[in-house]
């Protein structure tokens, strides 16, 4: 083989290798490194109609990489091993990179596109601020980028998926997003979630709900009328699950207990859930329709995270949300 032919041959091989290492056309590549994590799973999901599922990403040796078919840029959420959540923009034909430490997941850096660079800069800039200051900064960011997917990502992360939501602020922002991006499916799906979150604020009446418990009984709103109640939202896949069941078991055994308890589990399968409930001798009804965050019994309460809890008065109105486990006994004693 002559030098010229050898050069052409080697050039072709190099080109083939480079192409095979690139992002496949019509896909987004998600690759990352999370230090101090050897083996774990994280999850990605989106409310966009083009990706209406939950995918598992396996972390091995602190690294992960996956290619996902994608036709257009969409807002996605990454559920990290600690079950903290972060929103990002998935874009076709691009590699989105993630870098974080297991001890400082809040400082995760996401790059690979201009929009993700912008989101990362915003998060890191506001990392040390108070929750109130973060929300004010988020409001300003959304207003400044109202026509961008980054505004949707920030709204999801700082309002829709945040426990301490300001109903008035959330309502104003969702209306602005509707006006600016009303045709975007992500905005359309956020509207009922935001409305449910607002409707589930303190002082509001709990929504209608019904379903079958693990022991085969049907429970509904009527079963909890006339008496204070604790609704606890959890899931067997959450790393808080064991401590949550311990809290529920201790509350069940409180002397002179004057409140009911309902556990609403966001599981896709009841087998593991059933094992834990039986092992921990949980006697309160456990409602699980195996639809996780897509369950009407979850969406109607505006739940976009676990664990979460709602304290309800005997009049059926929400008294308080997301009380710390250590404070629950005292709060529940005060319910009327």
From TrEMBL:
InterPro entries associated with the record: AhpC/TSA, DUF4369, Thioredoxin-like_sf, Thioredoxin_domain, Thioredoxin_ResA/DsbE_sf
Protein name: AhpC/TSA family protein
Top-level taxon of origin: Bacteria
Pfam families: AhpC-TSA, DUF4369
GO molecular function term, any single one: oxidoreductase activity
Thioredoxin domain sequence ranges: 200-336
Annotated source species: Pseudoprevotella muciniphila
Phylogenetic lineage: Bacteria, Pseudomonadati, Bacteroidota, Bacteroidia, Bacteroidales
Gene3D superfamilies noted in UniProt: Glutaredoxin (3.40.30.10)
Coiled coil: none
């Amino acid at each position: 083989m002559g030098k010229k032919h050898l050069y052409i041959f080697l050039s072709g091989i190099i080109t083939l290798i480079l192409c095979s290492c690139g992002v496949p056309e019509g896909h987004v590549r998600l690759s990352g490194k999370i230090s101090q994590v050897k083996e774990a799973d994280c999850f990605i999901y989106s409310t966009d109609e083009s990706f209406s599922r939950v995918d598992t990403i396996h972390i091995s040796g602190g690294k992960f990489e996956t290619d996902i078919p994608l036709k257009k840029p969409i807002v996605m959420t990454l559920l990290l091993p600690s079950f903290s959540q972060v929103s990002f923009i998935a874009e076709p034909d691009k590699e989105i990179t993630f870098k974080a430490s297991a001890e400082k997941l809040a400082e995760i850096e996401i790059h690979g596109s201009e929009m993700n660079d912008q989101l990362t800069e915003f998060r890191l800039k506001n990392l040390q601020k108070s929750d109130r200051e973060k929300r004010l900064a988020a409001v300003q960011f959304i207003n400044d980028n109202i026509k961008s997917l980054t505004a949707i990502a920030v709204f999801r992360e700082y309002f829709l998926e945040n426990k301490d939501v300001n109903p008035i602020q959330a309502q104003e922002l969702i209306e602005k997003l509707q006006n600016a991006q009303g045709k975007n499916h992500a905005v359309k799906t956020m509207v009922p979630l935001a409305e449910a979150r607002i409707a589930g604020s303190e002082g509001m009446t709990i929504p209608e709900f019904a379903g079958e418990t693990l022991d085969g009984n049907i429970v509904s709103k009527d079963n909890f009328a006339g008496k204070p109640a604790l609704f606890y939202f959890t899931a067997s896949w959450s790393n808080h699950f064991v401590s949550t069941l311990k809290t529920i078991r201790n509350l069940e055994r409180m002397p002179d207990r004057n409140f009911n308890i309902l556990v609403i589990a966001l599981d896709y399968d009841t087998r593991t859930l059933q094992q834990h409930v039986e092992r921990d001798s949980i006697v309160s009804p456990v409602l699980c329709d195996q639809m996780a965050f897509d369950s009407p019994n979850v969406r109607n309460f505006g739940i976009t995270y676990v664990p979460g809890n709602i304290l309800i008065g005997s009049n059926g109105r929400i008294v308080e949300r997301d009380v710390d486990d250590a404070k629950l006994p005292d709060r529940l004693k005060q319910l009327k």
